[in-house]
Amino acid sequence: MPARLFKPRHRLAASRRLLLSPKQLKVMKTEQRIVGQALARVAKATPLARVVQRRAAGHKALAPGVAEPSPRRSKGIALVLALFLGTLGAHQFYLGYVGRGFVYLGVGALTLFFATLGILGIVFGGAYAGFFLVAILLSVLLEAWLLSDIVRIITGSLTPKDGEYSDRFF
């Protein structure tokens, strides 16, 4: 086959432009610009484009089809959860620190277990009365940790795991 049939596309496009009048060439460029703008608008709406935009903005990229991250957390709600359900670690779960929340739950469960054994030892008499002292010690440690978390929430040094607090208190 002759070599001239295998011209690169850009050379073919250039040779076609030579056959167009200046007015036709201007119309073709305008159409290309309009189509390019429409494609850009469609590309911005796709999930993959949102990932690219988020990565360019410095955010963690989400896979296509994954929901956007939750909105910023409220400092007031974190404080109320710490005050009323703090020994269960509810404020830690709310702020995104799931591991710390489970540690709160575990220490609370151990405190309850040792307190139960201690009370049974006191009521029925036996060697289990010493467990009540262990329960008191665990309870004091848990409450001290909770108090430090409450102070850190108020001062703003205990921030949500995935960002910052919202501007509003509640």
Automatic annotation (TrEMBL):
The chain crosses the membrane at residues 77-95, 101-120, 127-147. Keywords: Membrane, Transmembrane, Transmembrane helix. Residues 72-118 form the TM2 domain. InterPro entries: TM2. The keyword Membrane applies. Its main location: membrane. It is a multi-pass membrane protein. It is found in: Membrane. This is TM2 domain-containing protein. It comes from Hymenobacter ruricola.
